[in-house]
Amino acid sequence: MQALRIAIIATYFALGFIANTSVKAQQAESERWRPVSSPADRVFTFAQHGNRLFAGTENTGLWVSSNGGQSWQIQQTGLFEMTYDFSSLLSNGNTLWAGIRGGGVCQSLDGGTTWKTFNEGFQTQSFVAGIQQIGDVLYAAVESNVGLQDGGIYTTSVSKANWVRRGTGIPTAIPEILSFKKTASNALIIASTNSGTRRGNIYVSTDLGKTWQDRRIADAQNVSSLAVAGDIILAGTSNGVYISTTLGETWSKFGLQGKYVDVVTMVNGVVCASVDGEGVFMSDSGNWWLSLTENLPTSGDFVSALFVHNNKLLASLSATKGVWAFSFTTTSVNDSKNISTVVLGQNYPNPTRGGTTTIPLSLQKPETIRLVVVDALGRTVKSVLENEVLQAGAHLLNVDLQGLPIGVYHYQLTTSTGVLRKSLVHQ
């Protein structure tokens, strides 16, 4: 039953969220992670507004790019409130909102050029950890800080700030809030760190913030990130990724258990997650995870934000390492030759152990494939599959390289969409 549920979810992702495009991670050397020009400090949140890309940073304000993140300029707002840590940016219609820890909420009505505070009703300095808008109502998730604004959910009209704490069932002394999202049916979800003996705190409201239910994940401690696809909720936690199809009433493991997941997001129906100190991974159904890390310098660091812009996945690291981009290609599903998403994973273990290794791959539809191992001169030294039909889904292919000389080889996958190639070390 669990396998069937995961299969249904995977189909939902594949059909519901790749309705107009299919996504293929580029495996060529030229399409690995590339550093791009980045703001002067760690980026916590991105937002696209028109043709401009905004980045809210840790303590150096708001930055803007008009060329897809290739270059950035600081946005001079003149507001002291916007020099604190950004928690969220929200683009809605002609308005751009900023949630700031220590600076409350700020608003721009002209595409992010000029800004004003939007904090009337907050009695003291507010630590806004996230903002959402439903209709004409703006919601702010506020963290509790000693001597400052009580924690919880505050609401106001978008036309004039008059913040009022709203809702029952959510504590005033809520610990650090790490994510605030809404679903397609306008359910609101808060994720936070643990508090005392409480673990995996998640609060959900299905009545526009009037009442809140505690729907924590029992097997996790901190919940660091949320991603929403329709009414499906993904949670990145200190114990991997979890998924809920019941607005948080029940949770199931979705993979990467035992790892601290900093950020989880969606790339046209494919789940991407960053693991503390290890890098970025992607999956279609949670049954297996493909590492996208390659040359991303995450050792001793963590990814603070993931954002999709112009078919590129942006990952923010520390100020010294900056922002990096990973390219995806997007092709129309009306082109029958290109409707298949084919992802070739990195073999493991790498180097091989005992002369054997496993190669993961994922297919969006049944494919006739050829998989071979070649040497540095391109000569086939091992045929794994020769024009065999594999069904849609994730596959783990065991390869025995015993008898081959120790060295660096390449494994090459040929499908109807082209050729993908990766390197392996045989020892």
Topology:
Layout: H1 2-16, E1 21-25, E2 34-36, E3 43-49, E4 52-57, E5 62-65, E6 73-74, E7 85-92, E8 95-101, E9 104-108, E10 116-117, E11 127-134, E12 137-143, E13 152-157, E14 164-166, E15 177-182, E16 188-192, E17 202-205, E18 213-214, E19 223-229, E20 232-237, E21 240-244, E22 252-255, E23 261-267, E24 270-275, E25 279-283, E26 290-291, E27 305-309, E28 312-316, E29 323-332, E30 342-344, E31 348-353, E32 356-363, E33 367-374, E34 380-390, E35 393-400, E36 407-415, E37 418-426
Antiparallel strand pairs: 1-29, 2-29, 3-4, 4-5, 5-6, 7-8, 8-9, 9-10, 11-12, 12-13, 13-14, 15-16, 16-17, 17-18, 19-20, 20-21, 21-22, 23-24, 24-25, 25-26, 27-28, 28-29, 30-32, 31-32, 32-35, 33-34, 33-36, 36-37
What does this entry look like structurally?
- With 427 residues, the protein is mainly beta.
- The chain has 2 domains: 2-332, YVTN repeat-like/Quinoprotein amine dehydrogenase (Methylamine Dehydrogenase, Chain H), CATH 2.130.10.10; 342-426, Macroglobulin (MG2) domain (Immunoglobulin-like).
- It contains 1 helix and 37 strands.
- The protein has one helix spanning 2-16, and strands spanning 21-25, 34-36, 43-49, 52-57, 62-65, 73-74, 85-92, 95-101, 104-108, 116-117, 127-134, 137-143, 152-157, 164-166, 177-182, 188-192, 202-205, 213-214, 223-229, 232-237, 240-244, 252-255, 261-267, 270-275, 279-283, 290-291, 305-309, 312-316, 323-332, 342-344, 348-353, 356-363, 367-374, 380-390, 393-400, 407-415, 418-426.
- The strands form 9 sheets. Strands 1, 2, 27, 28 and 29 form a 5-stranded antiparallel beta sheet that branches. Strands 3-4-5-6 form a 4-stranded antiparallel beta sheet, with no helix packed on it.
